[in-house]
Amino acid sequence: MHPDQRDKVTGKVTIERKPLPLKDKDVIIFDDIISSGGTMIEAVKWVKEQDARRVYAACVHPLLIGDAKERILRSGADGIVGTDCVPSPVSVVSVAPLIAEALAKRV
User: Fold this and answer.
1) What's the number of domains the chain is made of?
2) Which domain holds residue 49?
3) How confident is the model at residue 5 (pLDDT cuts 50, 70, 90)?
4) Contacts of 3 (CB under 8 A, 6+ apart)
């Protein structure tokens, strides 16, 4: 499943839904940014409909505007994890070691 296209006016994402063999699987849905949570919510719902056992949302930039976190959890996600690029209650993965490693390679 991947975002098929984003409407340039409304920002709404159309998601292509294909049957997936997810019955009793643990699934991590990864996106670069979770802002309002709309795309992630649709993805979580779809994966849950495929009988996944547990579903986690993960992202690099957890903006989580408004009640996005609560809405994602209500949609069926078992948890949300993000990096510390944008401080939030779900920022549990530090990017500092990756940045330090990249800088060390350039020196």
Assistant:
1) 1
2) 2-106
3) low
4) 13, 14, 15, 39
